[in-house]
Design the sequence.
């Protein structure tokens, strides 16, 4: 099993290009199921989760290919098996996103209950509730969601859906289902994340009629069919934020290209508070750190607030910051599993319920640590960059799910980092 070895203490300098966003690419790829015409997607990252998505699509009979340059072609005209099996879905929660498109286009679907990172329960009850409101009959049996359309027209029906909580994948699933439903669907308490917006923009290119994109109330007027389209996946705001956190933790001067700074407001605000000097243009952002960071408090919440996917990375910065910070995690109940590993490196972190109290130390020490989930992996790499000596990050298959060649990109910036087989 691959590992990452980091030798800390070297400031980062130079320029690095960001990849397409994992959290946008996965729903967009599954959106290809909504049409029998080819879908061309650009800026698709080469990630383990993307490869799993392709396996799910191919397993259903669709043609799905990813070229070296990040261009993907999805052709769902050949879909013949309306099932997403456990052996694939168990590794990636986003596989639940086949449910809405399959049900909308084909009238029935069988999808395994999903897996993914062990950071919390992340139930799919809001997906099911919304689809039932649209006329789907749903049964959960033997670990599978069995769904079918009951209306004589063979189509889902427009409905008013109010989700009990803000759910990104729930909003995406219901929005995709509504594009082919008969009538008008209104989704209230909808997620506003940039990745949801990117999916909606792609669906509009395919002929969907969606109003309220980027707001908490979306109105979708269903159409009989969607067509193919050509769409570029947005830049990964979490990858951008991760690299900015790395500069804040170890120091240096780094320019991030192929970025979308307008999606980074909450992250930039916190890092500026920590002392990172940030300038930005339309598609680039530069971070300069001249000394030790200052401790910053944070509270995770749905967009546009601070993203839970950035919590572990900023915690790593706070570990070496001057002062004490309070981190309140409100999204996932198990998203402090990296704390024990950071403490192995000499961090001073105490957990009280959903709150972490981080007392900054002058220096972390390299150690062997174990990644517990995707973003924890990135946090541990950042801690290793800021530590004295060598850090070995084990179980980096988590890292490969969401970061494209992170060790290569960090090496371009002067970091002493390598992958070990």
Sequence:
């Amino acid at each position: 099993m691959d590992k990452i070895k980091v030798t800390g203490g070297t400031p980062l300098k130079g320029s690095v290009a960001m990849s397409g966003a994992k959290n946008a690419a996965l729903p967009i790829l599954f959106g290809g199921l909504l049409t029998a015409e080819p879908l061309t997607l650009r800026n698709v990252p080469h990630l383990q989760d993307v490869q799993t998505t392709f396996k799910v699509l191919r397993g259903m009979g669709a043609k799905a290919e990813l070229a070296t340059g990040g261009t993907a072609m999805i052709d769902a005209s050949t879909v013949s098996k309306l099932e997403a099996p456990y052996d694939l879905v168990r590794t990636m929660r986003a596989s639940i996103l086949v449910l809405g498109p399959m049900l909308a286009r084909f009238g029935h679907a069988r999808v395994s209950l999903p897996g993914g990172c062990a950071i919390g329960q992340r139930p799919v009850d809001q997906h099911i509730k919304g689809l039932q409101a649209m006329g789907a009959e749903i049964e959960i049996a033997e670990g599978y969601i069995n769904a079918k359309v009951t209306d004589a027209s063979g189509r889902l029906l427009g409905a008013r859906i109010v989700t009990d909580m803000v759910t990104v994948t729930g909003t995406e699933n219901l929005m995709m289902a509504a594009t082919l439903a008969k009538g008008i669907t209104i989704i209230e308490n909808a997620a506003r994340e940039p990745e949801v917006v990117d999916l909606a923009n792609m669906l509009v290119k395919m002929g969907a009629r969606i109003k309220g994109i980027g707001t908490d109330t979306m109105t979708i007027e269903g159409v009989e069919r969607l067509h193919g389209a050509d769409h570029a996946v947005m830049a990964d705001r979490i990858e951008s934020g991760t690299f900015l956190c790395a500069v804040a933790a170890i120091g240096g001067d780094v320019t991030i290209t192929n970025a979308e700074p307008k999606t980074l407001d909450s992250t930039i605000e916190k890092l500026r508070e920590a002392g990172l000097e940030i300038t930005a243009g339309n598609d680039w952002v530069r971070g300069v750190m001249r000394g030790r960071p200052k401790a910053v408090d944070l509270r995770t919440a749905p967009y546009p607030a601070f993203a839970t996917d950035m919590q572990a990375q900023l915690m790593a910065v706070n570990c070496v910051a001057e002062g004490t910070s309070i981190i309140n995690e409100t999204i996932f109940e198990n998203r402090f599993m990296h704390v024990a590993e950071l403490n192995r490196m000499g961090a001073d972190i105490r957990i009280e319920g959903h709150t972490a109290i981080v007392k900054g130390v002058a220096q972390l020490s390299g150690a062997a640590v174990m990644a517990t989930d995707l973003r924890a992996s990135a946090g541990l790499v950042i801690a290793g960059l800021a530590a004295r000596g060598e850090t070995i990050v084990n179980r980096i298959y988590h890292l490969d799910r969401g970061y494209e060649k992170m060790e290569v990109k960090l090496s371009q910036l002067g970091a002493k980092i390598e992958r070990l087989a």
